[in-house]
UniProtKB/TrEMBL annotation, chain A:
Keywords from the named record: Cytoplasm, Nucleus, tRNA processing
Classification via InterPro entries: Elp5 (IPR019519)
Top-level taxonomic group: Eukaryota
Similarity annotation: Belongs to the ELP5 family.
Main location: cytoplasm
Acidic residues: bias regions: 346-363
Nucleus is among the record's keywords: yes
Pathway the protein acts in: tRNA modification; 5-methoxycarbonylmethyl-2-thiouridine-tRNA biosynthesis
Protein name: Elongator complex protein 5
Taxonomic path: Eukaryota, Viridiplantae, Streptophyta, Embryophyta, Tracheophyta
Record's compositionally biased regions (Basic and acidic residues): 321-345
Automatic annotation (TrEMBL), chain B:
Pathway annotation: tRNA modification; 5-methoxycarbonylmethyl-2-thiouridine-tRNA biosynthesis
Biased composition (Basic and acidic residues): 108-121
Pfam families in the cross-refs: PAXNEB (PF05625)
Protein name: Elongator complex protein 4
UniProt source species: Hibiscus sabdariffa (roselle)
Main location as per UniProt: cytoplasm
CDD domains assigned: Elp4
Alphabetically ordered keywords of this record: Cytoplasm, Nucleus, tRNA processing
Cellular localization per UniProt: Cytoplasm; Nucleus
Length: 363, 365
């Protein structure tokens, strides 16, 4: 649930705990990662501005988009950056990451250019410095948003990126941190590392899986188009008590951004409260009708008390009819007294005979 | 004369007379081994008494839950309570800070009571003991508690109370961070110096040492992509530990290793455990197991150390649920099936999974 993520990021870390960290991961099949990132960013920043969070500022490390894009984005969301100069700082790793350009035109006071993305420790220092400059030193906290971790992984080793992220998480002035990852650009181990380092993992998946991963088929085009507007948003929270909370939502791409709605019933997880057993306890309609039609081999059954003729294979039909008719009448007259009417299994057998039926076996 | 004693198997060795003079926190185990406690009485019971000296214990972590920390905390606290030297290595910047979270032993007064209160047990009449095996442990528990004098072999630890300072200071407690070491030589040297203090002789064992290495292949460590080096470190540690009076415990997240190395590491272990996270609000699991609400995770015992013997250990159950009783005491319980569900083995395979990958959990009853 996007709301719970934003709440968790907003609340930040408790004393002595690592800061909550969110990984947003997407793939080519469901490429809304950047839009979800923007959504979370604007939500978090507006709560910081509104004073609802212990975090006093936000540092945005932008790799994949120009800082002016973010300033525009925040303006469009109705958050005026000019007045919130003291609350957000953007570390620009987009314009000149490797220090090739001699000089850059400064965009605004909120943007600081960073030129050494190959060196993770320098990046760490810059982030902390920028944060301290924003909120001051001491115990005041700030949040961090990292645009695209893929760009960091392009230039530095996995262990140095992991070290940067874990040091940021354990820094006492960081309230919360989140980042975006395109999971199909990396080996599985890299995604596993980033999931290991985060306390919440939000993944975007297509609502319909494409058959065999082939994207050229005609039938698949409709699915691809469908997937380009909608997707599934799964979140795994690592709670403090050691349990994992799994939640899912649907995400829709719209002009204004992304929209989250609860999952439609086609993907329902709850299957009712009937316990799983190996045999089927429910009856279908046809089965119910058939069941009502089954003639049970009990006596005194049938319409209006008329005796039912059940051929038991031992006597002729006529005899049995008569005998049963007698019995039924007798029972009807003696209904008050509650008699037990018993028919012996075999009419050859004498009552209470001492004969051992096994005697005639030749053993 | 040893012949007068009953032997558990014809391959067991003679217990030497030196075994009688053991230091605190040590006891004799089967086949001439000496055991020390893991800090969790339930785990000791499952493993047949505790960890044997000279063995390497490996714990496979779950990236989604910090349960391995609970195991480590109890292990380290138990060692400190018995004044056993401790070496702790972790990828955190400040490993000494972790010592502040170690639990203190529970006072014998507020001993936890398992099962129903004594008054209820005096009920006359027929009682149906649903899941009767739960009640077996009670009698044994009371008996064990009375035996020891000052030094109990194994303590219950209260996770709410931190360990008193005097246990940590003035002890041979060595902590260091493995995050910035470019390679494993520093860790190797520290372990060598630590273990050289605890050589194994045929004489009496005055004290045993404990080594705890947390999250060995954590991604923030520089050496974490040097897989062969890590494996050879584990092998050399195992050899050093075998010829000394100590137990080493290494925890690692298997999802961060390549599958072949993961298997190799598992084979290195004498005792192999794994912890798994449990999903919150899982209705299927709640229907399948009783006591689901109190569980915080699962513990699987994959391998139990067998030293000086060829006879394998076959456990009654290998999956246990981890619970925090009264939110303080770590207990391990066998999984008990809920009464309503009448399904057989096939349904567990699908309902036990709680990780994001498609592998299904193994619930072994």
């Amino acid at each position: 649930m996007a709301k719970s993520i934003c709440t968790a990021l907003r609340e930040g870390a408790l004393e002595g705990e690592l800061a909550p960290a969110l990984t947003i991961k997407d793939s080519i099949a469901s490429p809304f990662g950047l839009q979800v990132f923007d959504h979370v960013l604007s939500q978090l920043f507006s709560s910081i501005l509104a004073g609802k969070s212990p975090s006093q500022g936000l540092i945005l490390v932008s790799f994949s988009r120009s800082p002016s894009f973010y300033l525009e984005l925040l303006k469009n969301k109705g958050i005026s950056v000019a007045s919130s100069d003291k609350r957000i700082q953007i570390l620009d790793c987009y314009n000149d990451p490797l220090g090739w350009k001699d000089q850059l035109v400064e965009i605004s006071s909120t943007v600081t250019v960073f030129r050494e993305v190959k060196h993770m420790d320098k990046l760490f220092n810059s982030i902390i410095e920028l944060g301290r400059g924003l909120v001051g030193g001491g115990k005041i906290r700030f949040s961090i948003a990292i645009d695209l971790v893929d760009e960091m992984l392009r230039r530095a080793s996995v262990s140095s990126v992991a070290r940067l992220l874990s040091n940021l998480r354990s820094h006492e002035q960081i309230s919360s941190i989140f980042w975006l990852l395109h999971s199909d650009l990396h080996k599985a181990r890299v995604t596993a590392v980033l999931e290991y380092l985060s306390s919440m993992v939000a993944s975007l998946e297509p609502s319909h899986q494409l058959a065999n991963g082939q994207r050229g088929d005609l039938e698949n085009f409709a699915l691809i188009e469908h997937n380009s507007k909608k997707g599934k948003f799964h979140v795994r929270f690592k709670k403090r008590n050691g349990r994992v909370r799994v939640m899912s939502e649907e995400v829709h791409m719209e002009q204004a951004g992304v929209n989250f709605t609860p999952l439609s019933s086609e993907g329902a997880i709850n299957q009712g409260l009937v316990p799983k057993v190996q045999f089927n306890l429910q009856l279908s309609e046809k089965e119910r009708i058939d069941k009502a039609n089954v003639v049970l081999p009990f006596e005194h059954q049938g319409d209006n008390g008329k005796p039912l003729q059940i051929y038991d294979g031992r006597r002729s039909l006529v005899d049995s009819k008569q005998e049963r008719a007698v019995a039924v009448e007798k029972e009807e007259s003696d209904s008050q007294r509650g008699e037990i009417i018993y028919y012996r299994d075999s009419d050859d057998e004498m009552p209470d005979s001492d004969e051992d039926p096994d005697d005639d076996l030749d053993i | 004369m040893a012949a007068a004693k009953t032997r558990s198997s014809s391959f067991s060795g003679n217990l030497s007379s030196a075994a009688s003079s053991l230091g605190p926190g040590l006891k004799c185990g089967p086949n001439g081994t000496v055991l020390l406690s893991s800090g969790i009485p339930d785990l000791d019971k499952i493993l047949g008494g505790g960890f044997p000296l000279g063995s390497l214990v490996m714990v496979m972590e779950d990236a989604e839950a910090p349960h391995h920390m609970l195991l480590l905390r109890n292990f380290m606290s138990q060692g400190l309570v018995h004044s056993q030297p401790l070496l702790y290595a972790s990828p955190a910047r400040d490993p000494r800070g972790f010592l502040g979270t170690l639990p203190s032993p529970a006072a014998s007064k507020d001993d936890k009571s398992r099962g129903p209160e004594p008054d209820q047990l005096q009920e006359k009449g027929l009682r149906i003991a649903w899941q009767y095996k739960k009640y077996f442990g009670e009698n044994q528990l009371n008996f064990d508690g009375q035996r020891d004098g000052k030094h109990k072999y194994s303590n219950e630890f209260n996770l709410r109370n931190p360990l008193e300072r005097h246990f940590i200071n003035g002890q041979r407690v060595d902590c260091f961070s493995i995050q910035d070491s470019p390679d494993l030589s520093i860790l190797q040297d520290r372990c060598t110096t630590f273990l050289s203090q605890l050589p194994r002789n045929d004489g009496s064992i005055s004290c045993a040492g404990r080594i705890a290495i947390q999250s060995f292949c954590a991604p923030q460590c520089v050496y974490s992509n040097m897989e062969w080096e890590m494996l050879s470190f584990i092998r050399s540690l195992k050899n050093m530990v075998q010829s000394s009076n100590s137990v080493a415990i290494i925890t690692f997240p298997p999802s961060l290793l390549s599958p072949s190395f993961c298997k190799r590491w598992q084979h290195m272990a004498d005792t192999l455990l794994s912890v798994k996270a449990i999903q919150d609000d899982d209705k299927e699991l709640a229907q399948l197991l009783t006591g689901y609400q109190d569980m915080i995770g699962f513990l699987n015992v994959h391998k139990v150390a067998r030293i000086n013997t060829q006879v394998p250990v076959i456990l009654e159950a290998t999956t246990f649920s981890i619970k925090l009783q009264k939110r303080r005491y770590l207990i391990l319980e066998c999984l008990n099936q809920a009464p309503v569900d009448g399904s057989s083995g096939t349904s567990y395979g699908t309902s036990g999974s709680c990780s994001s990958s498609s592998k299904t959990g193994n619930l072994d009853f």
